[in-house]
Predict the structure of Glutamine--fructose-6-phosphate aminotransferase [isomerizing].
Amino acid sequence: MCGIVAYVGPRDAVPILMEGLTRLEYRGYDSAGLAVIGRSGDLRVRKAKGRVADLAAALPARFKGRTGIGHTRWATHGEPSDVNAHPHVSGPVAVVHNGIIENADELRAELEADGVALASQTDSEVLAHLIARSEAAELEDAVRDALSQVVGTYGIAVVDTRHPDTLVVARNGSPVVLGIGEKEMFAASDIAALVRYTRQVVHLDDGELATVRADGFRTSTLDARATSKKPSVIETDEAAYDAEGYTHFMRKEIYEQPAAVERALGGRLDDRFHTAHLGGLNLDPREARGVRRVKILGCGSAYYAGQMGAQLIEELARIPADAEPASEFRYRNPVVEPDTLYIAVSQSGETYDTLVAVQELRRKGGRVLGVVNAVGSAIARECDGGVYLHAGPEIAVASTKAFTSTAVVFALLALHLGRIRDLSPADGRRICAGLRALPGQIAEILRQEDEIAALAADLATYRSMLFIGRVRGWPIAREGAQKLKEVSYVHAEAYPASELKHGPLALVSPELPTVAVVPDDELRDKNLSTLGEIRARRGRVITVGHQELGDDSLTVPKNEPELDPILLTIPLQLLAYHAAAALGHDVDKPRNLAKSVTVE
Ligand code: AGP
């Protein structure tokens, strides 16, 4: 949600910043801007409403500089417009900001009372004025002065024409990472903007600032105590940030699932004891046996994957488990129990609601594990232990490979907990074999893409759709509906199939198709009765299961009943993708959304 990139060094900053903004555009795409310090020491700023391409079109040919900052925005305060786009400027100072300044209204009023004319409606602009008004000689101290007046979250990058060879960046709740080059330095909110230039990075901690010059950096806390940071090497592959010939990142990431699932399983299955080893759990067998309940927290698709996880844990380990939106949990003064294991799920590891839920739990003494994709992210660092997905960077706003990888990690965790408790070796062996079969079976489903695309183009003509599923099929129905509405904007509502006749059956008509998740499990007959009720009311039914159950049937290969939901998800991802593509939508950048919701 919003992207920051910054550069200081001998090269022209503009192409580097523009390249970084293009890589960060998935995080926010309603406006973009740049500020660079030109060779004559002047501040040059360009901003444009719309995409990074609109900013590129607005840049004059001779727009160059050696130190600069850039930003791509997802609006929170003030509508998307040229003036509300970042950087915000006050005299010699320009600032880009991710996050929310909570006391912006008071600060704006104080600045206005002092005669400062505010140009934008944003909370971020106050930072530029506060820094410019500081009497500190060093830019770092001026930034520190300004931040001491601010309440809220931020990742910021600042340039000042009085210090033309210096960048200052700071972090509190919104990530900032430094990239170390050869006699040049980079900074960004996300390594996506850096991988093209360097593999050596330094992650700032909350409450930390860095003064960055071409030949190095120094870090300190907000109260001016020096900190010592060691660079780490990013192992990610640059190609992971390219669409590599695919029409969209969403389609590429759907196709990456066999490999992502292989990586999630990599080295974690134990054929001797028919269990799973998860190195980072920090939970010994005795502690694992003491767990009386599991509570899983996440937002959006991460929550639905958590719901799948709760079912897996309850089925395989026989520990009562449930999932709850982290965004609700954090506000309801939850009762935190000592023998409950809390698990936070997040692809980005940055989702603010999930992060605050984790912090609230830790504050109350709860034990929290993370199931996270982004290595070293805020949520991963905040937890007592956890499991990484190793799905690789997910760029499309609509989560696909992270969703399936999360479900696979939960299957591993459920197997691990189950084998410490009462899951038999035979059942352990059965689940291990099922997990190993998943990548090949996902690849088999992907081969049906043409058939699914034709059905999706037909379904895209409807205004609304119902998604239903029972028990294991229920989170799949929810995720299917979420995917469809996110990218195609076709209204989609998910219900447990068992709840249909308690209300939503009233909606069923020839104008409202129903997508039904109908695996060959012990609830198949119940599901078939529900389909009969829909068809009796002339509702069109599309089934996703193991058998042809009518004209519109999508089938997947059979795995173990506990793992089947992972496969049943894949056709629904393709259905959503192709419905959106058929409607001509910008699939990777759906309206009103952005990747990683780092604000409340
Ligand atoms: C998924 O398609 C959505 N874009 C969204 O629901 C997402 O899963 C949610 O915001 C949580 O993100 P996280 O996994 O990065 O925490």
